[in-house]
Amino acid sequence: MLEKEFFTEYGEANQYEIQEVIGKGSYGVVASAIDTHTGEKVAIKKMNNIFEHVSDATRILREIKLLRLLRHPDIVEIKHIMLPPSPREFKDIYVVFELMESDLHQVIKLNDDLTPEHHQFFLYQLLRALKYIHSAHVFHRDLKPKNILANADCKLKLCDFGLARVSFTNNSPSAIFWTDYVATRWYRAPELCGSFSSKYTPAIDIWSIGCIFAELLTGKPLFPGKNVVHQLDIITDLLGTPSAESIARIGNEKARKYLNNMRKKRPIPLSKKIPNADPLALKLLERLLAFDPKDRPSAEEALADPYFHGLADLEHEPSRQPISKLEFDFERRKLITDDVRELIYREILEYHPEMLKEFLRGTDHTHFVYPSGVDRFKEQFAHLEEGNGRSERNSPLHRKHATSLPRERICPTDETDIVIKRGASSVSRATVQSPPKLKATEELQSTEELETANRNAVALQTSSMKPKCSTRNLLRSDSICASRCIGIIGNDREVHAL
Hints:
The chain contains 14 helices and 13 strands. With 498 residues, the protein is an alpha+beta fold. The chain has two domains: 2-101 and 324-492, Phosphorylase Kinase, domain 1; 104-148 and 161-316, Transferase(Phosphotransferase) domain 1 (Transferase(Phosphotransferase), domain 1, Orthogonal Bundle). Its EC number is 2.7.11.24.
């Protein structure tokens, strides 16, 4: 079985003790493990046959490169990528992450009593991450609750950068054209509705964050459109009919025509749509959800909003220099399989400094092969299969194109590191387990010409309050910080690979 050959021919396998297989799918296998050198719990993703499709391999290359370049407390971090046996013949890669307990989708689903402090701290972290990536001229393009990792101390991290793009304009990342899929429909900015090719700005991510924030406040998706027309209908039902100038910014001609012929609608005050919410939160939400992208604030401007008074701290809101266009020169040319393999191998060497030095000196490593760790892991996986049937929980992911990094949710026994202790402590209020909310219907297939791209999967973490965690149960507690209110319940564990 695949599980028994997890680390085939990879010498670094001896560094990790596999605990259990936590996910399987067309992309490969994810296992939880312990780093025997550090004692740290990690998630290891094996991606199989990544070069079968150049587009999938390019997407993986893009993501591992971005996660190396974008180092920030609110963005997932790759801890290690294993060195392949042969640089010119490898087909699989192994990416190592720290374990994260959950994602924001699960937090919202399992908690209907999040406090205003939770809402504020969550949004603050998301905007802080967005400020950083936008300063690097990177657009995420696929922000949604499942692409935001969460720990029990309320630490959030952006993940899943497989659809992200870098803008190489000379000045600010004001606009750029791309011609592929972007964003799950429910969180997609209206100017992108119906468009394969569109003028992208950082405002597309701001809209997505606004939708996510509204979902935090209400417990359900704000704009769960069934198709493009329905999406535009429910957006305008809330925001009112856009101006002619705003409609002109829509990239798709049919969408523009539909909006121009739409009956006039008056906007609904957010205070009626989301009663009992903090008025300052609603004022900021209104800015984030401006129909016209030019009316939305930048992440930096949003962080300066009065809603964050007492929490915002410029010292903890870093920016960075724009990413060099040389890093993504491959985006500008047509690649063949060998090109992508070489580029991915070069990225892997970033996690092997000595090998990188030799590589840069031009030493030929074509023929080096490391000892196989397969026998050891056959034993470990065999033990897992015999031990209380733990591996039986694994269910295949029925995604056709799950090719990116892992996002599986594990409930580890201890955690490390938090960035804003003040913020974390401020949200450690009375929060107990609540019954799961009505699960909103999730879109799994596309409509019209919009949804054609692959979905990604990623898993990592950072947090720090070192909460003691029941390995699988969701417990009641006085605070998110101390509870498993964002954990996984028994066999209902969801392995997300979008």
